[in-house]
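Q: My labmate handed me this sequence with no annotations at all. I'd like to see what the chain might look like in three dimensions before we decide whether it's worth expressing. Could you predict it?
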Amino acid sequence: MKRTSLSVLTTVLLAGATLSGCSESQPGAGATSAPATSAATQSASHPDVFHFRIGTLDAVALKDGDIDAANDGKTFGVGQPTDQVAALLAAAGQPTDVLHLSIQPLLVRDGARVLLFDTGAADASFARAGRLPASLRAAGVEPSQVTDIFISHAHPDHAGGLLTREGALAFPNAAIHLSAPEWDALKGDADAAALVAAIAPKVATFQPGAAIIPGTVTAVAVDGHTPGHTAYEIASGDERLLYLGDSAHHYVVSVQRPEWTVQYDGDAPLAQASRRALLQRAADGNLRVYAVHFPFPGLGRVDAQGDGFVWVPER
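A: Here is what I predict for the chain of 315 residues:
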C-alpha cells in the first residue's frame, strides 16, 4: 500500500479527523520525568513557544496547531478492536474516542544559520493550524531569516507551510532539504505540481543517512511512511537530539504499540518495523527525542517497557 499523494493523505486525514477541541495533556499516572540535559523554558509571553538547548545550540519548539483523529479503527490501530485502543488511551488518562496530535516544527539556531525542521500544516482543512508564522516571530525570527528547512517528508502537515496562501515561498531565503527519494516521489505526484514548481529552485536533495550539515544535522532514514521519510539527528558536542518526523504519531498508541497499523503509512509493515527499530534505538541509547506530533513541546525520551515502550516527557 502506497500513499505518496498529498491529496490522498488529505482525504485520509479528513476521514479520520474530528475538528472538536483538543487538550494538550501529558502522560498520566505511572510516567516519570526524564532528567533534562539542558535548560528548557516555555515563553511566559507566548504559550506556543518553548525554548531549550541542544549543547550550545539554541532550540525552540514552535506550535503550529492540532489534529484530532477519531478512534474508529480506520486511522490508528487499524484492524484492532476500538475498545483495545480505548483501553490503552484510558490507562494514560486520555479520552477514548479521539487521539489528539499536536503539530510543532522545530527551530534551531546554529551560528549564522537558522534551521527549521518541517513547516506545519498552514491552513489545511484537516487541522486547526497555521500558527507557525506567529510562533516563529514570537521566538524572534522572521520567515526571511530562515536559512535552511529540513522536511521530514512531503505530507501536508509537514510541508504545508512551505508556501503562502498566494503560492509564494513562505521562507524565501531558505534552502529546502529533503531526501532524494522523497523529492522524486513528490515530483511524480500530479496533485503537487504547483508546490514542486514553486520550491524546485530552492530544493537541495540528500541521500538517506547523509550528513547534511556535518557535525550538526544528519539524516536518519526511517522507511515505510513515505518513499523518503527522514528523521534527523541534531548534534552539538556530545549532545544529540533525535527529531522523529512521523516515525511515531501518538505518544501512547505509537509508542506502546509500535506494531499496530497506521493508515497514514504508505508501506505499513515496513513502517511498523522501522518504528520499532527507531524506538528501540532511542531507548537503548537513552536518546533525547523531539516528537513533532506528541503533546507540546514534544521533548522527552523513550523507555523500554514490556514488549513496547513508554514516552517520558521532559519536565
